[in-house]
Amino acid sequence: MEKDNLKSRIYTKSGDKGSTSLIGGKRITKSNIRLETYGTIDELNSYIGLLIEEVIGDGDSIILRNIQSLLFVVGCELATEQGKEPFKKLQASDIEMLEKEIDRIDSALPKLLDFVIPGGSKNAAIAHICRTVCRRAERRMCELNELEPVDNLLLIFINRLSDYFFVLARKLCLAEKGEIFWHNACK
Question: Disulfide engineering: 84 pairs with which of 24, 26, 31, 186, CB 3.0-4.6 Å?
């Protein structure tokens, strides 16, 4: 009976000394770049959850929920020990879905002539936070890829995802107030 109670607890105590297990059983330190990478993916997913709570349009919310699910796939792949097969993998069609959504949103936006200053509305600001956390996840993934191979589809997906958040931020800002531009006096 006591053993069963331990299995139901949220804490395991196995990470109390600064290590954690990958899917497959290998233990790594919590400062490992692999853990930092999928931890940043998790952080991004949390910000997307916040954005969903702010976004009005059902269409955007559906896409964002789909992206959240795909980020769990990305995290699963990154959390799986080298040489082991993850139980689910990202597909090329997932990248195509993002590209179609980027093109759909971008086709309705005015041509971009200057740098966009993040903000302009609460929704747009959160979308820009998602974009910048996504870029950090991409940098961490590239750093991990220098040490051990990362599936190229993951790198492409995360790169496209930051582009998606950029056009989404522009769309959300234009729907509410209008964009804020940085006009470079050095041009």
Answer: 24
